[in-house]
Input
Amino acid sequence: MSGSGAVEVAWFGALCDDDYRYLGVPDPTLASSWQHCRDITLAAERNGFDNILLPSGYTLGIDSTAFAAGVAPLTERMRLLLAVRMGEMWLPQLARQIATIDQMLDGRLTVNIISSDIPGETLESAPRYRRTLEWMHVLRTLLDGQPVDFHGEFVDLTLDPPRASTVSGCCPPFYFGGFSEAAKETAAAACDVFLTWPDTVDGVAATVADMEARAARHGRRLRYGLRSHVIVRETSQAARAAAAALVSRLDDTVGAAIRGRSLDSASVGVRRQAELRETSDRDGYVEANLWTGIGRARSGAGAAIVGDPDEVVAKLGAYRDVGIDAFILSGYPHLDECDRVGRHVLSSLDHGPLTPLDPAA
Output
């Protein structure tokens, strides 16, 4: 079981039009743009976060790869977690882009592998994950500086690696999430860090145990990350009030439309987030300090850790105790909550950039 030593704490870049003052009420000043997302990224670095997720969504916001290249020279310490969709770009070109951005960051790039449908295409889950697995294998080979001679179902490629290489000469760590059988097996076989969405502490523990067993069957070891929203205030009462205020202007019809427009709106993970909402109390809490109200107005990660600084740190510690090595946190509005988490939470955590395990068991 992992869960000792420093934990990586990342923020969320909100490139995918997911920033609000009141959920479901668009605010033009918070829309995804170069300026707004740049400001979030620089605030995360200023506040001491170790990494920042740059999400990818074709219909939602700006492009993650172009943004990463643009913001890289503006950062000095923090890593970037670049989300890329498998199958969306010609593989050799993707390898060159990743290597180039890693050079711009002096080796501080990490990669979030996305297996959602490519815009304009619908592919059933099983073949989509087979494609993802092939892409991950070939992409890692190229970024490790090795020639490719691969002839699979989706990739047919014989090619030397590009001259452009990462600073280390090796592939950056692959972060990956998914909850279907096909997704879990793909993660066990090919990722470095398995990402899960908010759940009860026992639910997260069960996910980690499941994935450790799967990885072991592949002769591999993984690290584990939790993607969650957070609402921290100086008192517990103020935090709960802030949570209630966040959804105080939400029209449930609008919330359903927001959830439905995501490319992963029908996934196993999204269904689990709905189950948590359905089993929560009248205020939306499914267990102490875990509030499911955010899921009323977004697909994907649909719960928040809510409380005063001690409660938030304790909740993160409880997840840490069951095997979580990294947190990807977010809050609304992202600039404001980034400052609060930096001020009230980061100083109480032993944190730093995540080092993937040697995958050999």
The chain has a mean pLDDT of 92. The first strand starts at residue 8 and ends at 12.
